[in-house]
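Fold these two proteins, one after the other.
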Amino acid sequence: MTRSPTRGAARSSWRCSRHRSPRGKVGRCSPRAARRSAVRPVVSRPHSRTAAQGRCRALWSGRWSCASALASAIASALLLGGIVLAQVVVSPVQPVHLQRIRELFQVNGLTQAAIGLDRRGRVELQGVYDNELEVDRAFSLAQTIVGVRWVSPVTPERIRVRAWMSCLESLLAGRPCDAPTQRREPVDRSPEGPPGPLQQRYALVVGIGRFQDSRIQPLRYAAKDAADVYRYLIDPAGGDFPPASVALLQDAGATRTAVVTALERIKAQAGTNDLVFVYLSSHGTPPDKYGGVHLVTFDAVVKPREQIWHSSLSEDVLRAFIQEVRAKRLIIILDACYSNGAYTSIPGFLPQGGKSLDGDEYEGYGRSRRDMAQRLLGMKDLVYDATSSADPPNAVRPGWGKVLISASDAGERSWESDQLRNSIFTHYFLQGLVRTRGSVKAAFEYSRPLVQQQVQREKGRDIVQNPQATPSRVEWDISVASKG
């Protein structure tokens, strides 16, 4: 999260920004205005159009016209079940930007690293690297020149990493490969079918408003948001959680090790019939080489820049927790944003001007519901309609499943309010839990329109913030209150 800039400041379309303005006011932001590059842009065209042009040339000797060839291509596409209309993508990335990136590679010892442009006109890593840390460094350096929007996620077929090859050779020879950066796919440990009656409840509540590196923009209400959530959970009239089962980590207490340890403790304790509630509020990192974004912990390191991915709460850790915890009632609340505004005081962290080539100073980079479903819940697609269930047809059973709730949608920001003295989403979500006796789904549905109304009242009629819920199943009306 970053607090948004003042009304007259540059604005971005990406997700939540909580930036404290010099005047002490919480300002507003609006969707990013498209701006053309002053230099002639690179135009990237879809492959289908290139293929059609090639067909024109190939068929010229047969006295076909290009129009006939294109008509034939369209007819073939229609016969195959549809056609995708070509769309020209305008990229602001110019040769001067590529040259600056190459110069940075040389200065940083990446002598065999290379770059090109992908089909969307984004910078794409190529070449040879000694290990994955070198890939991270190259990816980070490219982001400092063109911004996060114009660097393409890394694909293994485009680069060669000597450590990866060495590891593969070891595996083929029957020897273990203990590369420290090797990605591990989590395994879902929960059994099939619905849970039994609710037994134990566990919670982790994290709010980080101050950081060890003072150059990271502080958050005014993140720690208070966490304290308010904690008080609701242990309140006998609220969640009525046993206080010993709820861990509260704020500011200096929310180091990466402390957060990971708390998650591991819950994972070890929670059984199939238990309920787990996790609330996380902090800044987010820029996307890493695979497109993942992570949660900035108190002790996150921002220099060299790529270290922020290794010192924050990584997407892999959170995904492994979600997939491996046995509890069949799991609620994850992410009141966290991903915006450049968090890093404007760190020299060299952002491109010159603090933005991507066509972005603005407080550009964000959050995640959509589909991205959350696929990357964190491990789902192939979003849940829209009722799915088959092991519940008996007439059974009366509380909702269950795994649900991720985010304070805003992709392309939006999550706002704080001096009037409410909270994040706007957290304020209304907690209010909803009180009014609905702990029903997570009803509280979410209650808060969603109120968040939008409050944002427009305080920040402007053109500002949107739409909280998103991503459940693993339709029947996810889970209650966090023992009497719900």
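Now the second one:
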Amino acid sequence: LTDGLLPAADQADPTEGVRQKAAGCVNLIVDIDQLERPDGLAYTIDGAQVPGSIARGMLCRAQINAWYQQADRRLLDLAYDVEYATPTQKLALAVRDGTCRWRHCNTEAQRCEAHHLHHREHGGSTDLDNLALLCPHHHDRLHQNGNRLVMGDTPDHWQLQDAHGTVVSKWTKPPPRRRKPADKSPNQTARVG
């Protein structure tokens, strides 16, 4: 049985149905102090304002050249080609998480996005221990509200924190059960022909 599954798993596209990295590139000027504020702003090169909540979401999804600067306009860093979860990592997340990790959400893994628990702009790595599956709705909601999703000791335990680190909600969400073959009672026999 496993001989037939392994080649199929190798050929399966774990990113099917998942939003992919954008082909284009956006240059975004980010004031670090502004980015974390609920009413904070970032700017495009031509001066268009981008709300901080939208900018935080963009940093997760698009290829962004994020030019970080302080309030005194000193350039701090350039974070370019923001890293994304690989197809293999997305497959591992699908196996580990099964669905969106948000409380009471059962959106299937193939429709979810890999979210950095410790955000990239704060030095978060693109490792499985720092990633969780979120559906697009909850991924956007998390960034728009400025909250953080935090994994507990195991991938079954989660908490939602506000921008100040105060725990807003805690929950336990084990991965969904995988389908098991139907049990046959001892009185049932298979008919052939």
